[in-house]
Amino acid sequence: MRRFAALIEELDSTNKTNQKVTILANYFKGTPKKDSLWAIALLSHRRPTRPINTTLMRIWASELAKVPEWLFEESYHIVGDLAETIALSVRQEIHSTPPSLSECINEIINLKSKDEKEKKSYIFKCWKSFNDYEKFVFNKILTGGFRIGISQKLMTRALSKSVKIDENILAHRLMGQWSPMTTTFEELIINPNPEDQISQPYPFFLAYPIDQDFQDKELVQNWCFEHKWDGMRSQLIIRKGKYFLWSRGEELISDKFPELSSLVGLIPDGTVLDGELLPFKENKVGYFNDLQKRIGRKTVSKKLRDEIPIVIMLYDILEWEGKDIRNYHLTKRKEILESLYKKIKVNNAPVLLSQVMFFDNWNKVIGERKRADEKSSEGLMIKKKDSIYSIGRKKGFWFKWKSDPKTIDAVLTYAMRGHGRRTNLYTDYTFALWKDEKLVTFAKAYSGLTDMEIREVDRFIKKNTIDRFGPVRQVKPELVFEIAFEGIASSSRHKSGFAVRFPRILHWRHDKKIAEANTINDLKQFLR
Predict the structure, then answer these.
(1) Among 18, 94, 210, 389, which has the highest number of CB atoms less than 10 A from its own CB?
(2) pLDDT tens digit sequence for 514-526
């Protein structure tokens, strides 16, 4: 634990990528394999289940620090991070050798089944025996808020440097649902069993937003174009007569979409396909919210499958006849994919093939992008014809050119304090639209204002609070903001009757009075 805490402190002290890689590589080289495996798990967002809630941690910390709960809460708001607040408030009393990282995490896992008294005793012992930074890291593991600015790609690069295995190979081995509780460093990293990798997906290749001068720099003939669909990016795997479906977040979601199991037998073994899961009813692409209803259920009934049928829109093929073909040029991979699609589509399989388009000038590309709404897409994907299927984001190969956002003018009605450096400022805002001469909440937004505007809005909120609900303040409805969003769907869970995707503040409309803000009916016009 001491070694791992020192690692996190060292990583946190530099913003130089190469230096972080060297620090991590040295850690992997000189650390017992059990601890290295848990470090890899934590840095790739595989954390143990939280054994206690943060409310108890705050109560216990104020008790051990001998300060009133209100004072601890105020300190927490000033510091902006619970793990750090506890580390600063509770002083070390017992100087002893801490357990190893793997031992500490095993203790945390075992804590889950203990009663509250035993949990409290264990947490007190750790807080009193760890030094400040060990305590901070320990609290981060407890709360599950372990973020230190280390991407999985950077971590994989450091591991590659340490174990002398190609980075792409390691990235593949680290995909999927593995846990240090059920595997070893040797089994996962050095000599994995091929049988254990039947379900293993590949790392996803991602796109950059298009550059403003992209059209001026690039020849349109070097690129191919597809519509960008608003669904769930997924990998479909058929190996050894079995079907696996993975989300981009590395969740195995095969059981949520059992209709895709019909592809076993239609698609040859040794095939991995990249695509987008889409709700698809009556030959029409549905809303992302519908897809979430499928994901959110423990069991997907036939009734739900009938209400929200799905397809997978195929973009790419990564493995064919058991061979990794990610290094083939995009045009070659598309040829293989199209040939496969023709064979399986005659069986009415729940698949579609993303249409690849080619243009001879950028004006035609712009025209196609303008048709995104009528095709129920979010815009265009732009892919270099000779691009390989890489890992993560790699500049220069794949770009996304989303449609212009939809916008509406709304009134600020509620606000809550932010986090981190903005913990003393009200930066989390709730907005409303008019309905029958009343303001009805329709969205929350957290980004889009400058630091100066945030401070100005904060002053207004503090001076114009008309009610309080815990950490939330209701404010006098006076300020109007232009809110941008990507999409909209009907929703019975929202007071407005609609849910919008990715809302953010576009402009502060100083020129508008609240009577000029838009209505729920105006919002409804965006519904396709």
Answers:
(1) 389
(2) 999 999 999 998 8
Tokens of 20: 């972080």
> Mind listing the domains of the chain with CATH numbers?
2-143 (1.10.3260.10), 205-402 (3.30.470.30), 406-524 (2.40.50.140)
- HEC readout, 218-287: CCHHHEEEEEEECCEEEEEEEECCEEEEEECCCCECHHHCHHHHHHECCECCCEEEEEEEEEEECCEECC
Catalytic residue among 20, 135, 140, 228: 228
Strand bridging mode 242-247 / 271-281: unpaired
What pLDDT does 148 receive?
66
pLDDT of residue 73: 85
Residue ranges of the chain whose pLDDT lies below 70? 146-149, 420-421, 528
Picking from 326, 315, 320, 311, the residue whose alpha carbon sits closest to that of residue 203 is 326
**Nearest Cα residue to 439 out of 461, 471, 473, 414:** 414
Please answer whether residues 174 and 44 qualify as being in contact, where contact means their C-beta atoms are separated by less than 8 angstroms.
yes
Query: Has this prediction a pTM greater than 0.85?
Result: no
Q: Which two tokens stand for residue 238?
A: 């058929």
Q: What is the largest CA-CA distance in the chain?
A: 73
- Tell me the per-residue pLDDT of 450-504, one tens digit each, with 9 for 90 and over: 989 999 999 999 999 999 987 899 999 999 999 999 888 888 888 898 989 899 9
| 372: CB partners within 8 A, 6+ apart | 227, 228, 378, 379, 380, 403
Q: Report helix, strand or coil for 425.
A: coil
What's the CA gap between 69 and 468, in Å, rounded?
A: 19
> What's the pLDDT at 421?
66
**What torsion, rounded to 10 degrees, do the Cα atoms 172, 174, 176, 177 define?**
160
Q: What is the DSSP string of 338-397?
A: HHHHHHHHTTT-SEEEPPPB--SSHHHHHHHHHTTGGGTEEEEEEEETT----SEE-TTT
**What's the CA gap between 221 and 430, in Å, rounded?**
45
| Cβ atoms of 295 and 288 closer than 8 Å | no
CA separation for the pair 435, 186 (Å, rounded) = 62
- CB 402, CB 383: distance < 8 Å: no
DSSP letters spanning 56-90: HHHHHHHHHHT--HHHHHHHHHHH--HHHHHHHHS
Known catalytic residue at 343: no
DSSP per residue over 480-496, as a string? EEEEEESEEEE-TTSTT
**Lookup: tokens for 445:** 């937004």
How many residues are present in the chain? 528
Q: What is the pLDDT of residue 21?
A: 94
User: In sequence order, which residues have a C-beta less than 8 Å from that of residue 124 and are 6 or more positions away?
Assistant: 60, 64
Residue 151 tokens, joined: 């991407």
Query: What is the model's pLDDT at position 420?
Result: 63
Q: What is the pLDDT of residue 146?
A: 65
